[in-house]
Amino acid sequence: MPPVLIGNSGLKSWSVIGSGGFGQVYKAKSIDLGIDVAIKLLHQDDSSSLLKEAEMMLQGGNPYVLRLLGEYQGVPSGSSGPPQRGLVMEFMERGSVESLLQKLGGPPPWPLAFRLCHQVALGMNYLHQLSPSCCTLTSSPPTCCWTMGSVSSSQILAWPSLSAL
């Protein structure tokens, strides 16, 4: 089943929340769903890797991996240029692991660190169990990677039960 197509008319209040080698991530309000969403747009039009990632995300769900809500096609608010394609995912309301560590100003207390590690392991185990597996372990340095490229925990993991904030 292909992802739902979401265009500019279904989104408002765009803001950039992150960027990296792959592209930019925006926060916007979905008019139809009535919730904040994250929109991942690639720097280059690499539709094949975008569709592979969408297919993997549509295989099911896990509370520790972000859900795909649809595919974006359009020109982001405040931008100019040709239409872009991207993924529309649930927005991590409480932020990423990286933002949590910044708020704490140092390492988390052991109970929170253990819970974070446990939840990361649950999310990564789920990704590894997909068919075909989209999570492989590299040897040097030990890193878990998507088959479509390296992904950090701040990009893929949601923390629904985190109550430390």
From TrEMBL:
The entry's keywords: ATP-binding, Nucleotide-binding
GO molecular function annotation: ATP binding; JUN kinase kinase kinase activity
PROSITE patterns for this protein: PROTEIN_KINASE_ATP, PROTEIN_KINASE_DOM
Positions with a binding annotation for ATP: 40
Pfam families: PK_Tyr_Ser-Thr
Annotated Protein kinase domain residues: 11-165
Organism superkingdom: Eukaryota
Classification via PANTHER family: RECEPTOR-INTERACTING SERINE_THREONINE-PROTEIN KINASE 3, SERINE/THREONINE-PROTEIN KINASE TNNI3K-RELATED
Protein name (record): Protein kinase domain-containing protein
Species of origin: Aldrovandia affinis
